[in-house]
Amino acid sequence: MTTVAANFPMAVTAKCQKTELANNYIKQFQSAEVDAILKQAGETKLIVPGGWTPVNPADPHIQELGRFAVDEHNKQTGDKLVFVAVVAGLKKPVELATLYWLIIEAKDSDGNQNIYKALVQETDLEMKKLLYFGEVVPPVN
């Protein structure tokens, strides 16, 4: 199991405590969580140890991947989330592809902003596949 702890380039503002939640979540990243998601998705060939590195959330390509994740989630579930931004993330090269573990801010149909986590696979041919999407739940004190 790999734990990633680093200073990620994320702006934490008083206006959005959810961004701080995302920052803490990515700092406490456990690759075992992603490995379990990959096993459940039948993508065991993508499970390789280590190799996760931070992404720059301001990178337009990373924002595009986040928008893709929200759009795919909406198609699969009928939800009507509206993409706001990728606020943090990690990437890991695997055979003929790259995995992206993204922390995404999105608005629900009531206008509430929440933080979500998504696992996106992008092949070397730039084909994308959403492997997981779920809400980041704040820790209970």
From TrEMBL:
InterPro entries named among the record's database cross-references: Cystatin, Cystatin_dom, Cystatin_sf
GO molecular function: cysteine-type endopeptidase inhibitor activity
Gene3D superfamilies: 3.10.450.10
Positions of the Cystatin domain: 47-136
Pfam families: SQAPI
Alphabetized UniProt keyword annotations: Protease inhibitor, Thiol protease inhibitor
Listed name of the protein: Cysteine proteinase inhibitor 1-like
Organism of origin: Coffea arabica (Arabian coffee)
Chain's gene name: LOC113742174
